[in-house]
Amino acid sequence: MKTYFTLNNGIKIPSLGFGTWKTPDGETAIKSIKTAIEIGYKHIDAAAIYANEEGVGAGIKACGIERKDLFITSKLWNAERGYESTLKAFEKTLEDLQLDYLDLYLIHWPAAAHQFENWQEINAETWRAMEKLYNEGKIKSLGVSNFMPHHLEPLMKTAKTKPSVNQIEYHPGFTQPDCVKFCADNNIQVEGWSPLGRGEVLNNGILKSIAKKYNKSVAQVCIRWALQNGVIPLPKSVTPHRIEENFDVFNFQLTASDMTVINGLEKIGASGLDPDSVEF
Ligand code: A2P
């Protein structure tokens, strides 16, 4: 299993990232980021709306690893869509993270038809601002999050720089196959948010019996399964032994038949957050 994947612009991205959604700002964020980087995570997934970028940034600063050896992602929040506001929001994120560039910047959620008549134009203008920052070298790769094929298609028509990444909800029991296929066909790397289904899939009996065979935890099986499907999992934890456990996934391999069983699990642990109906 490769520890890096290569994006469609040639940039290397660590194949396992560290999630920060719901990580409290301040000491908890600082400590969990420091712990993760000490354990070996090189890829941190942040977002402005998580309201913890100052702590995440302080943790990155305190970890003692050279900036070039880390891969830091953030996301543009929905309230900041549009050309000028995207440029401004990006500067605030950089300042909070105490960084001078990002490895990856994502549109957190698409503007969509249920909220905006001109949703395609809003996404195109947001993207145009991100392309400016990309061309200036302030962002090394551009992407989106929670975009379904019908959101990506119009964006790709006006985009001069193709999206490199789409970050979507992805875990056993929720695999969004149409979106994953569209991304594969268009050479867009899929990242999986909530790879443990926010912890909700961990009690599934089938996953438990598979985990037992490998002497691994269900969390490790979920993470390994995503990796073997070519998806970048972004498990979040603030608990040191879990942060370590979730990284200890490069020393075993799920068999093809176990992959098939997990790929075919019925719906479990889905957040219910649909980009075409969310109210935020
Ligand atoms: P905590 O942060 O308190 O350790 P997801 O990444 O799918 O959103 O899941 C995150 C949730 O799963 C958090 O509540 C986190 O708790 C919990 N979690 C993370 N890693 C593990 C693990 N290895 N075993 C059990 N629960 C975990």
Count the strands? 10
Q: Would you list the SSEs in sequence order as H and E?
A: EEEHEHEHEHEHEHEHHEHH
Name the assembly state: single chain
CATH architecture: Alpha-Beta Barrel
Find the CATH superfamily. NADP-dependent oxidoreductase domain
Protein architecture, described:
With 280 residues, this protein is α/β, with parallel strands linked by helices. The chain has a single domain, classed as TIM Barrel (Alpha-Beta Barrel). The protein is built from ten helices and ten strands. Strand 4, helix 2 and strand 5 form a beta-alpha-beta unit. Helix 1 crosses helix 2 and helix 4 crosses helix 5. The chain is globular, with a radius of gyration of 18 Å. The structure holds adenosine-2'-5'-diphosphate. Adenosine-2'-5'-diphosphate binds next to helix 9.
Which key terms come to mind for this protein?
TIM Barrel; alpha/beta; 10 strands
Set out the fold topology.
Elements: E1 4-6, E2 12-14, E3 18-19, H1 27-39, E4 43-45, H2 53-62, E5 71-76, H3 83-97, E6 102-107, H4 119-135, E7 139-145, H5 149-158, E8 165-169, H6 177-185, E9 189-193, H7 205-214, H8 218-228, E10 232-233, H9 240-247, H10 256-263
Parallel strand pairs: 3-4, 4-5, 5-6, 6-7, 7-8, 8-9, 9-10
Antiparallel strand pairs: 1-2
Adenosine-2'-5'-diphosphate (A2P) binds at residues 19, 194-199, 202, 217, 219, 235-239, 242, 245-246.
